[in-house]
Amino acid sequence: MYSQGLIGADSSTTESEEFLAAFQARIDREEKIEPNDPMPEGYRRTLVRQIGQHAHSEIVGMLPEGNWITRAPSLRRKIALLAKVQDEGGHGLYLYSAAETLGVSREQMTEELLSGKAKYSSIFNYPTPTWADIGAIGWLVDGAAIMNQIPLCRCSFGPYARAMIRVCKEESFHQRQGYEIMMTLARGSEEQKQMAQEALNRWWWPSLMMFGPSDTDSTNSDQSMKWKIKRFSNDELRQKFITATVPQAEYLGLTVPDPDLKWNEETKLYDHGEIDWSEFKAVVSGNGQMNRDRIRDRNQAWDDGAWVREAALANARKRADNQHIAREAAE
Amino acid sequence: MTDRHDLTPLWEVFIRPRNGLHHRHVGSLHAADSALALQAARDVYTRRGEGNSIWVCRSADIAASDPSFAEANFEPADDKIYRHPTFYDIPDEVGHM
Ligand SMILES: [Fe+2]
Ligand SMILES: [Fe+2]
Hints:
A: two-stranded antiparallel ribbon, B: Ubiquitin-like (UB roll), 3 strands
């Protein structure tokens, strides 16, 4: 999801017509493709990129919420937020493993994230100035993620689909804990309600952008749909998300910051106002409010952990050598 | 570029949901050695009571059948219907067998 309909993908492929047709026939029969199966290079490349972007998003996604763990307003909120952030780290790991089955190494993916070469969801480049932002993230950002990830459970690539099933099972608590935070604020003092409204104002449009460019501008969508990597277009998912979310905002007594939002009796969906795609492009290309901080923080975490990784490897090598010596002595 | 020798090895993780069931493959992870792999598997794969026992083994130690031989390997089983109980005609009067 977080792969945003794939930023800058290239699904071009050079195999023979027969090879591609045989592969497409497997896809059309709803057969799952497993890592060692023959597959078009474009399919592999698209998946490495999409799963990689998705994994990076889970990992970077821990940062905006991590910002509030030490300042959560109660112990209950704190343990819930800790558990949620830990889940996101786990999601990143499931996804990196799925990408690794396609022959890309963890080290390479990590390097690409740390150097800023790899993309991740634009949503995590927004700041979390108040506690209400934590509520809005759980409700809207995890809500949008769920909307996108549920169809990915049926993705044609087996390891990605299996990782998504695990992830989806864990996501619903994320959204509920966020909505509960919003509910508490919306029923609180005038100031608290105001804080919830402002968080909704901040996160609404960026959440809609999580679904990626509009179908008319999403060049890679068609091939991904044909290969059943994705099952719905960006705009379809976005509209489904809006339609599910608007009544939830109404229940909170909050106002969705889109004056053009209108119920469409014919489609039974909400039509929405114009999305500011120039903002989306700016954030994706590295000029969001928090892009630099996020990459700096990831690099710092990586550097701070270096001694642990080195010590663990040194210890493993020493024990392997000792076993070797002991075996030789016994012979 | 990192030296191959310095890479943290990949492990496959198997979890037994409860006594009486098989350990089942749930995914993989990187760890320097088996003790750390077990610890990481506990954190990554059993946060919600998914099991009571974990196995880990180095991914490099797994031998896998070649998918291009899948037909040769597994299709012969398809036409051996005499390996299934319904192949044999036993009159109903005999009762459940
Ligand atoms: Fe997640
Ligand atoms: Fe989540």
